[in-house]
Amino acid sequence: MGRINIRELPEHIHKAISDSAERNNRSTEGEVRSILQAYVASLEEKPAPIETLRQSWQKGVGQRLDQLFACVRRDQVFGYGDRQSLVGIARTIGEDTPAHLLDCMEGIASPSFEMLDRVVAWSAGSYEWLVSGVGTVFPVESLGSHYRDFFLHDRQNRNITFHLLRVCGGRLDGMILCIRHDSDKQTYACGQMYSNFHLKAGMGSGGHGNLNRFIRFLKTNCGDRSFKCYAYEEAEMTTEPGSHHPLYYLRAATPANWLTMLFDGKDPDNWLEGYSSSWKEVGELSFGNGEAE
Known about the structure:
Largest sheet: 6 strands, mixed
Low-confidence stretches: none
């Protein structure tokens, strides 16, 4: 066995080793031996392998797939008789075997673009969030004044219904959550209107003008489309649009008549105070599907 003699060892180091030896019920020599063994073991440890960009992306997508499926289960999106297990999800989205989906979720395989498209179509999840982690789990477009494309989408499709939910309470009080549902393809798209006007008292002239133009547009350009409107009581103060599947909001909403009243030029709840004349004109408009607002 080898031996090491150490000369001129600083006193504070010797004391520290002696104190450690006493705590560990070892001799000073045994403590030094233990320290040296741990040091040599650290030298022999293999460095952790460097994660490649591909491995990092696969791992991230796998974690987000797991989160997306958990959200779908939480919001009870599954149809009657659908299997909620990962094997059942793999079959529902059209995989030949569950193995590839499971490998993707574990980060050891790459999902194809085509597979991701099927996952998004089935779950109504956000493609951008799924592949990059940017945005929310479920996509919600900020419509602002650019709402024409959302409501004129697939104009000839008679299977589309627009659900307009007025948020009541919380930080987003007065916001409209717009859900477009294609009952034939069973797909959903969401948008929110909050920056241009709020459906509550005290909007001001700018908000009233924007709301007036929006209702005119719906009445004159989308008179042949199916609309349903609701009140959605905001139970969670921190809930953000996009944190739940559209069906979650629809199940929690209550049918309301505020859209019909606005179409008729009537004030649902002191929203239009001081602007009744311009709303009388809205009430006199005919429903149509033209291009003039």
